[in-house]
Amino acid sequence: MSKTIMINVEKLNKSFGNLHVLKDVDMTVKKSEVVCLIGASGSGKSTLLRCINFLEIKDSGLVVIGGEKIEKETHDLNEVRAKVGMVFQHFNLFPHKTVLENVMEAPIYVKKRPKEEAKVEARALLKKVGLSDKENVYPSKLSGGQKQRVAIARALAMKPEIMLFDEPTSALDPELVGEVLATMKELAEEGMTMVVVTHEIGFAREVADWAVYMNEGRIVEVGHPKQLFSNPKEERTKNFLDSVL
Ligand code: ADP
Ligand code: MG
User: Mapped to the 3 state alphabet, what secondary structure does the chain carry?
Assistant: First the structure.
């Protein structure tokens, strides 16, 4: 049985003014796959993720999510964003809300969920990310790793079908990276469909089903992580890996 296609991007183009950032990008991600996206700063990785959950609107091409071709004219983009959760490098937690309130916020205000139900679910998510004891704490009292785990719980509270991670560990002190990657690995093992921009090659090797190298707005190489990282076919991939490893 072939797996359901969760994300299908075809000939995606996006420019900012004169800057052509995404150039005919094609990518297909099936259910429960984990894809790691690597590439130099400025190569268009964040823009690609943002076009997939419509934080940015593509100029041309197709974005199909869960079999549905999404267009800003015909779709409620808030619904698309609920289906496609995103975790950023900077956690963007609400500073004046407790950890629990941060996780409850979107289900209550966006999905109009009853407060008590949202609270029960938020507590379950905090347990899942190992932060049950922090529910009444404000974000300023958390470590970076804890903040990022709250951000993951907050994205999961919308019950997304897909999770996008944009360099989720690159703002963290090295000793805090592991706990966030462990949370992401758990999510992958539960079958979440994930696209992860990361230079944590160890994580990519261990968790990703395949990896993508992007350069100057194009996908240059796609492969199994073990192949792509150890034995890249393209000279540009090799040069990039030599610069980061
Ligand atoms: P990456 O995530 O790979 O570092 P980005 O997708 O963030 O790359 O950016 C690709 C290019 O697009 C960069 O040159 C960046 O400066 C530019 N860019 C990204 N977002 C915007 C924006 N909102 N307005 C103008 N330029 C942007
Ligand atoms: Mg980026």
Answer: CCCCEEEEEEEEEEEECCEEEEEEEEEEEECCCEEEEEECCCCCHHHHHHHHCCCCCCCEEEEEECCEECCCCCCCHHHHHHHEEEECCCCCCCCCCCHHHHHHHHHHHCCCCCHHHHHHHHHHHHHHCCCHHHCCCCHHHCCHHHHHHHHHHHHHCCCCCEEEEECCCCCCCHHHHHHHHHHHHHHHHCCCEEEEECCCHHHHHHHCCEEEEEECCEEEEEECHHHHHHCCCCHHHHHHHHHHC
ipTM higher than the 0.90 cut: yes
* Binding site membership of 57 for ligand 1 (Cβ less than 6 Å): no
19 lines ligand 1 (CB under 6 A): yes
Ligand located closest to 17 CA: 1
> What's this model's pTM, rounded to 2 decimal places?
0.96
